[in-house]
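Lab meeting, action items carried over

1. Structure of the two-component assembly. Owner: GW. Status: complete.
Input record:
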Amino acid sequence: MTYAKAGVDINKVQAAHRVLARKLETTFRTRRGKIGHPIFPIGHYAGLINMGHGQVLSLHVDSVGTKVIIAQMMKKYDTIGIDCVAMCANDLICTGSEPIAFLDYLALSKPNPALVDEVAEGIVEGAKQAGMAVVGGEMAIVPDLLSEVGIDLVGMATGVCSKEDLVLGDKVRKGDVVIGVASSGIHSNGLTLARKVLLRNHRLRERIPELGRSIGEELLEPTRIYVKPVIELLRRIEVHGLAHITGGAFTKLGRVLSQANLGAALDNSPPMPGIFRLIKKEGRISEREMHRTFNMGVGFIVICPQDEADRVIRLFKKNSQQAFRLGRAERKPGIRVNGVRVN
Amino acid sequence: MTYAKAGVDINKVQAAHRVLARKLETTFRTRRGKIGHPIFPIGHYAGLINMGHGQVLSLHVDSVGTKVIIAQMMKKYDTIGIDCVAMCANDLICTGSEPIAFLDYLALSKPNPALVDEVAEGIVEGAKQAGMAVVGGEMAIVPDLLSEVGIDLVGMATGVCSKEDLVLGDKVRKGDVVIGVASSGIHSNGLTLARKVLLRNHRLRERIPELGRSIGEELLEPTRIYVKPVIELLRRIEVHGLAHITGGAFTKLGRVLSQANLGAALDNSPPMPGIFRLIKKEGRISEREMHRTFNMGVGFIVICPQDEADRVIRLFKKNSQQAFRLGRAERKPGIRVNGVRVN
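Predicted assembly:
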């Protein structure tokens, strides 16, 4: 099984993204010499625009994807809002920005105040964890656009950064340490493949001994929000690169390292969490495909000089988050996990 | 026929919005004393946050709604991007803000580079008209979330304003003139009702003499973008209130006038454009329901002191946009069109 066969071809999606980006960037000239001029091409973790006074605004949009299907099947909508905030806020901080404001787009088949209330609960919880104010949103009742799942949830986030404090990956040096921070489970990516594989042989509410709970509960576990430790990190320790492991999984690290024309060898993967072992086994999915689709227990990556690595790991530990050395930045291009190139 | 019967009950939607807003506003305290603190409750045309240096950021998210269904039926996707930008940018300017940056969320059933290219063409055209840089976006391939229409298109916009230049409606005075600016057609609201009414008796490609073209062509006409004349207006003329006539149509004016505890009597409606005459007749829809659902030829409203009205109208004319006196702000609450209260 591959993610492409489940309907999502990462290569095709990324190629289409590049074509789209070049076209959209022709609009940059409309802001030339004005407030709001972009300072970086499309394709990093956030759009970056110059606000004057040395201030840069970072803007990002992301969706929960098909995790809403698990919510609908489990009739439990009070945590997908956390995922929605996490998908945006964890991306924003990869530019060194502090997330400040959030908006949501909630598409529904029909007005459903109880469901909206549940979704809002998660958004509020996520926003508090990320230190963001939710300043608006759009609820669209669009019965004809949605499948019988009846819901889509998207977030838009704004962050701010001093221009000189941006972290874009260009400062990564050969030999820098790649540190992984533990994920809380599958987060919000690869759900389409996970569903196709796991629901072939199991019911969603079936308790799986290796997981210690049902598949549905495991897949619904909210995405960890890394904002607080990362903001603390940015204030106190020299950081060269940051990567949120989301769509495309470890291929995302390539986006950061390419700024410095470097690659990375990740040879110390953490033990594979139960949910990924289960998906890998039941879907007979290759190691490479797993690392191109799932976070494999690593939700966030920090790249720092060798002599800062221990301090970085301790800082996450102090914030009750487990961090570990994954590998090193190398001259050789590409991201290699246990010797296999994944991007 | 009413919009509620077509699946969208404006009263229910607005009530749900209010409950949601109060809940989301509990997150405002996370930014207390920090950059990015909200300066206005949720519910105006944009979320407003304080960026320091006297600068306010305005943030808004909006979707094209079911206009994508017309695009799909007509196999023509190159203008819905203009609608997407218009829905966001026309809302942002209602706070006195200058739109600066745009992101899109495009949900698709399957990767389709040709379709994406067409959509991007409209987004680029809209962004250029609105003077915004498109700094990113998300393309989600979510086959299981979408109906057979296979597409949803959402925009997120950022604007900027000096704090003292915000236009929120609180400065509107009794006797101020309500000026309407011509729409380019149905824009991006009421499409669900329009489709249900018109496609009962007609095919989409049927040429309608009163419209001078087919129903599909008429419904796909891109939403007019009012940014350029309105920004010029804000720089040169005293403006007390601004309203984009979108979802909920003329009830939206209530949002602005309520800031000054005033209402409005609109007794000089422009001649009803052909598309609205057709929908009204074939759907046997009341005048009141029409004004709660459709722009009725008025896409944007400016409220200004009596002695500025002629200058406002001339400024739009200079920008090739037709503007006309619709009525007056009054002590009596509510929005009345030809004596009928619509909100």
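2. GW to write a short summary for the group page. Key points so far: Chain A touches chain B through 86 residues (CB under 8 Å). The first helix of chain A runs from residue 10 to 24.
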